[in-house]
Write a structure and sequence with these properties.
alpha/beta, 10 helices, two-stranded antiparallel ribbon, about 375 residues
Length: about 375
């Protein structure tokens, strides 16, 4: 990852919420294909149109939820899983109004979006094993296969000639792990890729009659952004092999993404129609899609020598919230600045927000009817 200290604050930085109104902009339901990158976001980024900023922030919030809901405590019986069940996840994480379950089901949200949207959100590096994979900076060729429903056999689909993928990211995506099926079900060896592909295939079959108004969106931060790009490419390849599915838009909103593959990979992603919008703080080589550099010019942020803080997703979302254009000062749009300090210490002291304040209540222990504090089993 590439992180850099902040420049001097601009004297004309705007501290009040932006006065820009949305009264004259078109409804999202009428322009959603443009927001999803149908025309590579031409004319939408500089200055950034409010619809696009709002949607990018919304997808970023879903990526942040993956961090907040992840049980990364090595002593926990649920280590490596989500704190909450699929049924309760959004409610327990304060996003009950998101309109989403695994797929968007809320009629009002569907009308606002103009289509039914499947979102796959990836979290970034959290475990020691993932840090090891992140450091495996070696490009390798690969092939992926999809099961043919007609024959029941796997059909291999090679990457285009010369396409190479970072080994560590590919390993995170395709390596099998023990996965429990149901609260008391058996465990099976399955990869993250298998879970994603099978679920998307299922959802597409369920909503096949809505094919003209269906989208698939991937989002993630850091390692999660790399996996979002890789899995979006994988899914688009799969859709291209299936009748009438190739027209489903596949988009990636990537935050602080490292390199995923070589130039041939980037070219192939573009050829098959995957749209990638990357939010970065520095220009990097061999990246896919459209790049939007975010200014480190927020007056809320203090100077620090802890460069790792500047890779924080909440900081990216804060800077995106204040982004207007490449030559415009920071213009706060109202996103709660306290969120910046959830897992770091970047806010100026005058805002009186404690550092690293996000934590699980009672570290997951629940007091039972017998008066004893225990850690409950994983919910379904």
């Amino acid at each position: 990852m590439a992180v850099f200290p902040l420049p001097q604050l601009e004297d004309n930085a705007v501290l009040l919420p932006s006065s820009q109104t949305n009264s004259t902009q078109p409804q999202l339901c009428d322009v959603w294909r443009d927001i999803q990158g149908a025309h590579n976001w031409n004319g939408l980024l500089d200055p950034m149109v409010p619809n696009l900023k709002a949607e990018a922030l919304r997808y970023g919030n879903l990526a942040q939820l993956c961090y907040d809901a992840f049980d990364g405590k090595s002593y926990s019986k649920n280590y490596g899983t989500c704190y909450h069940s699929k049924r309760d996840l959004f409610n327990k994480m304060g996003m009950s109004e998101s309109g989403y379950q695994v797929i968007c089901t809320d009629p009002n949200e569907i009308r606002r979006l103009g289509r039914r949207d499947i979102v796959i959100a990836w979290r970034g590096t959290q475990t020691a094993e993932e840090w090891i994979e992140d450091l495996r900076d070696i490009l390798v060729p690969t092939r992926l296969s999809y099961r043919c429903k007609r024959t029941g056999k796997n059909q291999e689909h090679h990457f285009a000639d010369g396409v190479l993928i970072e080994r560590g990211f590919l390993s995170c995506y395709t390596s099998t792990v023990r996965h429990r099926q149901g609260a008391a079900g058996a465990t099976v060896n399955i990869s993250t890729r298998d879970l994603v592909v099978s679920e998307i295939e299922r959802l597409i079959q369920v909503y096949e009659k809505e094919m003209d108004n269906l989208s698939i969106t991937f989002t993630g931060h850091s390692l999660g952004a790399a996996l979002a790009t890789l899995s979006a490419y994988d899914i688009k390849q799969m859709l291209c092999t299936k009748h009438n599915f190739h027209q489903i838009p596949v988009t990636v909103f990537a935050f602080a993404s490292p390199r995923v593959g070589n130039l041939a990979f980037a070219k192939r992603v573009e050829e098959i129609g995957v749209k990638v919008l990357r939010f970065v703080n520095k220009r990097d080589l061999f990246h896919v899609g459209v790049e939007l550099p975010l200014h480190n010019n927020s007056p809320f942020i203090q100077h620090t020598h802890n460069l790792a803080y500047f890779h924080n997703l909440e900081l990216y979302l804060h800077l995106l919230d204040g982004y207007v254009g490449s030559k415009q000062p920071f213009s706060w749009s109202g996103r709660d600045h306290a969120l910046v300090n959830k897992s770091c210490d970047l806010l100026r002291e005058k805002y009186e927000i404690p550092p690293k304040w996000w934590q699980e209540q009672n570290k997951g222990l629940v007091k039972g009817p017998d008066g004893k504090w225990t850690q409950p089993s994983e919910e379904e």
